[in-house]
């Protein structure tokens, strides 16, 4: 989806013009993938513009950097304030927020430690990631020929730029084969996650999702949907799931900041259940949108941007 340019981007403590938000070609990140980032949505809710789980996203950003022994030169509160400031400065009501921490221009070589740690926050208007009909009708996915990283290789729990080289391999393969998304297996052959989404499936009334040990990003939407499902009285299991469950599940769906709650209607050309989004998926999707659109927010997941 094309980025819609706005007036300013927050860079290292100040707002700069969109076109001036540049970095040097010898910045460490360009060569060695040394970045950590977040994707956060600001919704136009019935009670005003609100960020969804801002604190959890900013905390994960710090966790991602910590795994790589990278100290972010701001506090979590400062980054949360900067996100709100950037949205307000660009007068956006609903948008996507992309904070990114990266190793900048310094030494050239693998060792990042002499390269500055820089931070930028960009915001822009953004709709449904996989298209509005994806949320209604569901998407067609393929099981990727690429596996998610083995334990103790690329840390799956860090949302690091370099990890998305694997996501790109998966996404390009899927798109070129005529699918919207890919679904990867972990190194043991269990279902893991999509290129930017976590996976859930429903079988005989129970909800399943792969555990954190399944080489996946601990998604904030995943955690939220687990809570929503529990609140609604569903039985949910975080457990390793064999590949074939994807073919015999009654329902399957992806969660993510971008994907929200997106039904999956086929896997490798095999229809999931009836081939249409199922009742549990649609119920959870509705409950999710009740929070982010109608601001029915029992867990205080929304942070309002223009509350003063
Ligand atoms: N897995 C991957 C690989 C992702 O990039 C994302 C998007 N951040 C997710 C899962 C979903 O995470 P979240 O719900 O926090 O957006």
In short:
It contains eight helices and 16 strands. The model has no long low-confidence stretch (mean pLDDT 97). It has 308 residues and is of the alpha+beta class.
Give the count of helical stretches.
8
Say which molecules are bound, naming each kind only once: 4'-deoxy-4'-aminopyridoxal-5'-phosphate
Radius of gyration, whole Å: 19 Å
- Which H/E pattern describes the elements? EEHEEEHHEEHEHEEEHEHEEEHE
Mean pLDDT: 97
Q: What is the CATH superfamily classification of the largest domain? A: D-amino Acid Aminotransferase, subunit A, domain 2
The CATH topology name of the largest domain reads D-amino Acid Aminotransferase, Chain A, domain 2
Instruction: Supply the CATH class of the largest domain.
Output: Alpha Beta
CATH architecture annotation name of the largest domain = Alpha-Beta Barrel
Q: How far do the termini sit from each other?
A: 32 Å
The percentage of residues in β strands lies in 25-35%
The total number of structural domains is: 2
Structure class:
alpha+beta
Gross morphology is globular
Low-pLDDT sequence parts: none
How many β strands by DSSP?
16
Largest sheet: 8 strands, antiparallel
């Amino acid at each position: 989806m094309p980025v819609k340019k706005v007036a300013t981007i927050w860079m290292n403590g100040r707002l700069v013009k969109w076109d001036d938000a540049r970095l040097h070609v010898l910045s460490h990140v360009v060569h060695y993938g040394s970045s950590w980032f977040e994707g956060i949505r600001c919704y136009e809710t019935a009670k005003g513009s609100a960020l969804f789980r801002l604190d959890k996203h900013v905390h994960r950003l710090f966790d991602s950097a910590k795994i790589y022994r990278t100290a972010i030169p701001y506090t979590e509160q400062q980054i949360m304030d900067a996100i709100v400031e950037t949205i307000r400065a660009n007068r956006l009501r609903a948008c996507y927020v992309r904070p990114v921490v990266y190793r900048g221009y310094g030494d050239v070589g693998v060792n990042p430690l002499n390269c500055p740690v820089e931070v930028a926050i960009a915001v822009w208007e953004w709709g449904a990631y996989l298209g509005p009909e994806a949320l209604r009708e569901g998407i067609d996915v393929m099981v990727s020929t690429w596996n998610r990283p083995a334990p103790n290789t690329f840390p799956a729990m860090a949302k690091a730029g370099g990890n998305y080289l694997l996501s790109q391999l998966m996404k390009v393969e899927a798109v070129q084969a005529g699918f919207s998304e890919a679904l990867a297996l972990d190194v043991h052959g269990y279902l893991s996650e999509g290129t930017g989404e976590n996976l859930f499936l429903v079988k005989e009334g129970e909800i399943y999702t792969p555990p954190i040990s399944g080489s996946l990003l601990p998604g904030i939407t995943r955690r939220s949907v687990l809570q929503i499902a529990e609140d609604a009285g569903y039985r949910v299991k975080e457990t390793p799931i064999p590949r074939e469950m994807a073919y015999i599940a009654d329902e399957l769906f992806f969660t993510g900041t971008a994907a929200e709650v997106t039904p999956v209607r086929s896997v490798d050309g095999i229809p999931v259940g009836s081939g249409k989004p199922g009742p549990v998926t649609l119920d959870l999707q509705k409950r999710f949108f009740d929070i982010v659109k109608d601001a029915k927010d029992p867990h205080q997941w929304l942070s309002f941007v223009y509350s003063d």
